[in-house]
Amino acid sequence: MKLRTLVRLANQGATALGLFVSTVTCTPLVSWWAACLQGPWTEARGNILIVPSGSMEGAGILGESSYWRSFYAILAWRDGGWRQIMITGGGPAPAAEVMRVFLEAGGVPVEAIRVETKSGTTRESALNVKSALENEPGSKVLLTSDYHMFRAWRAFRRVGLEVVPRPVPDAGKRAQSWNLRWGAFQDLAIESSKILYYYWRGWI
């Protein structure tokens, strides 16, 4: 390959990379993407609040998505009207247990919190929560991160558990700060690949 061709390809690659970086950093792409996955914004109320776990930073340390889901679960509880909160999510040091401690510290009564710690995926959470709650009366509300709601809500409905979505700000919030935008973009890209996989498996 001639040097001139290599230079041309390098210039084209640099231009494409520059356009990509500018698009993510300087346009509302990330906010728009998060809003699409979030769906309609609601502050749904019900009897049982279902909260899937998210990221962890290490054993016993909540990651950002788990923290925000826990934080907004506490706010929802303080609004009143809930009978119980079901937290779902496993792992070597189950995320649901760490979130339970956080909710208790935030004033949620220990007797009102249930945990499900065998799930390692959103699909498993849907199956296990359905098994745990299928005989429980009352309306059920799903609280999770904005970017996770598209897949989670459909996964729960797919296994036969009717839930009302209650998204919480996460990627959409981070998209408002340029220094956090790339992290949000990465989460959205990973989540979108999981959505495609779930469609392929027939799980949503």
Note the main attributes of this structure.
about 55% helix, Rossmann fold, alpha/beta, about 200 residues, five-stranded parallel β-sheet, 7 strands, 8 helices, single chain, two-stranded antiparallel ribbon, globular
What is the topological layout?
Layout: H1 3-26, H2 29-38, E1 48-52, E2 56-58, E3 61-62, H3 64-79, E4 84-88, H4 95-105, E5 113-116, H5 122-133, E6 140-145, H6 146-158, E7 164-168, H7 171-174, H8 178-201
Parallel strand pairs: 1-4, 1-6, 4-5, 6-7
Antiparallel strand pairs: 2-3
Helix pairs in contact: 2-6, 3-4, 5-6, 6-8
Structural notes for this entry:
- It contains 8 helices and 7 strands.
- By secondary structure, the chain is an alpha/beta fold.
- The longest helix is centred in the first third of the chain and has 24 residues, at 3-26.
- The strands form 2 sheets. A 5-stranded parallel β-sheet has the order 5-4-1-6-7, sandwiched between helices.
- It has one domain (34-201): HUPs (Rossmann fold), CATH 3.40.50.620.
